[in-house]
Amino acid sequence: MAAPSPAPWTFLTNHTHVLLCLERYPGDTLREVANRVGITERAVQRIVRDLEEAGVVTRERQGRRNTYRLQRSAALRHPLEAHHTVGELLDLLG
After folding, report:
1. Which pTM does this prediction carry?
2. CATH top class, domain 14-93
């Protein structure tokens, strides 16, 4: 009997996956984040731009590389979760 195929969806969005990678692997390039998440580098760039515009991530240039600092006190965006912070989400997903 063949193993069941995985569901075509996940509980977390790609935005959350990228945020987790930036937290767990701060030295990764966006290409490495894309490989970890399983999306294109261009998609990661758009997500990081979204997160920057929302005040969740700040970009700092260090030499030829960018580093990303997470604003853990930023509120989650959906009204159902707005009373929680990015840091609480990251801690929960540990």
Report:
1. 0.88
2. mainly alpha
